[in-house]
Amino acid sequence: MTAILVFGAAGQVGRELVDQVWPDGLQAIGLDRAGADVTDRAAVTRAIAAQRPALVVNAAAYTAVDKAEQEPARAWAVNRDGAANLAAACAAHDLPLVHLSTDYVFDGAKAGAYDEDDPVCPLGVYGASKEAGEAAIRAVLPRHVILRTAWVFGVHGNNFVKTMLRLGAERAELGIVADQRGCPTEAADIARAVARVAAALLRTPEAARLGTFNYVGAPPTTWHGFATAIFERAAAAGRKVPALRAIATADYPTPARRPANSVLATGKLARAYAIAPCDWPVALDRVLGALAAPASA
Ligand SMILES: NC(=O)c1ccc[n+]([C@@H]2O[C@H](COP(=O)([O-])OP(=O)(O)OC[C@H]3O[C@@H](n4cnc5c(N)ncnc54)[C@H](OP(=O)(O)O)[C@@H]3O)[C@@H](O)[C@H]2O)c1
Question: Where are the alpha helices (DSSP H) in 141-257?
């Protein structure tokens, strides 16, 4: 068995990474925060030494975008120092690292889709701490893949889809931001992309396969567009749905600023790995179906 060690295994993406069937005889070993706190360098090193994986995946992150503005030290500890700890341990054991990052490293001022080498300019603590995590990895570990994703939704954990379903059941009308553009991405699709990246890296570790890549769902939309798709499906399934009102970012002030445009271009990943962007409306059908099933959590 070839082991893939997944840190942050209890998160939205982490759970999918552990639950999925991996290609090429690979098998995931998941560690949640109690199993290995990524801010604890000794714990990270111990875990890698004990499990002897062929590759490490970092799905651990501090992802509370607004709360990060109130407790920046926690966000920096997990997103920068945690990434640095993993990179250092991987370097010491000569292991490749696949690390997840975010569209929020960008400020949203670009008119078109962001390429991997566009200048970063995060607007808040979360984005800045994730960007610092990327930089910490690049500084010590050439054998890395940083996979930037966005607007993650899925069956596990908290996400926009679950929030919409909850608010939709409680309220007659919802105002949803219609002037931020981005790419909803299913957690399970991210896990599948990570598995394909890991398998290809271990099979043929070419230089073109290393570095920073974008992986997001298609087509781009707005939060209002995403909510509309969610409630169309909810209505078709017989649920009570609210009236949706398109509002501006200025009408919905939040502690953290968010990019107006965080659409990511996925051509680089397609060229290096033949991985195409996932179709988020299809993924949304899957997730809503799973959430409606009695055993979902
Ligand atoms: N969610 C999004 O919309 C989004 C968008 C763009 C990019 N991303 C990126 O995608 C990746 C996966 O995100 P996700 O949505 O799966 O996040 P998530 O559901 O919040 O999961 C993150 C996991 O990391 C764990 N964690 C936090 N601090 C830790 C620590 N010190 N040591 C070990 N584990 C720790 C959390 O455990 P606890 O529950 O115990 O805190 C949680 O299980 C992250 O890199 C994130 O930045 C996410």
Answer: 160-170, 187-203, 223-236
